[in-house]
Design a protein that fits this description.
By secondary structure, the chain is α/β, with parallel strands linked by helices. It has four helices and four strands; from the N terminus they run H-E-H-E-H-E-H-E. The chain has a four-stranded parallel beta sheet, with helices on both faces. The longest helix is centred in the first third of the chain and has 15 residues.
């Protein structure tokens, strides 16, 4: 079933009214692709994941870094824009296939989670495991 812009907006309005909140959480889609994954298919999967949770994901808020294997998130242009959107409050969270698309090491993972807690943002992972829970730690950190 194809959804028209009017039907999508109607569904958003219903979700907003049912929640009692004026707006739903706004998210940005992100992935770091280092293999032959089809970006269009992955974007569709991430969008479906976000929409199933009634998160608002605008058409312009998706960033994929392709290649750059082994690079830290600070070296990726797509992540640079995602972190700006998070810091400036333009989005409330980030949706990614897994935390490994954002961070490369346990040390970087702790720093990333602490930074999210500091700015009060959240993550949602398509392939979330018990060890990649979106819960935020209480430690403070800084995105560099």
């Amino acid at each position: 079933m194809n959804r028209t812009p009017a039907s999508i907006q109607r569904r958003r309005n219903l979700a907003n009214a049912a929640s009692g909140f004026p707006e739903r959480s706004r998210v940005v889609l992100y992935a770091h692709i280092t293999d032959a994954t089809d970006p269009a298919l992955l974007r569709a999967e991430l969008r479906a994941f976000a929409e199933a949770r009634h998160w608002d994901c605008s058409e312009e808020h998706h960033y994929f870094d392709i290649g750059l294997a082994g690079s830290s998130r600070r070296e990726r242009p797509g992540w640079f824009e995602v972190s700006r959107l998070l810091r400036e409050g333009e989005v409330d969270g980030v949706v990614a296939p897994s935390e490994s698309h954002i961070v490369n090491s346990p040390a970087e993972q702790g720093e990333f989670r602490a930074w999210l807690a500091t700015i009060q943002r959240f993550t949602g992972y398509l392939h979330e495991s018990e060890h990649e829970a979106a819960a935020l730690p209480g430690d403070a950190g800084a995105e560099r």
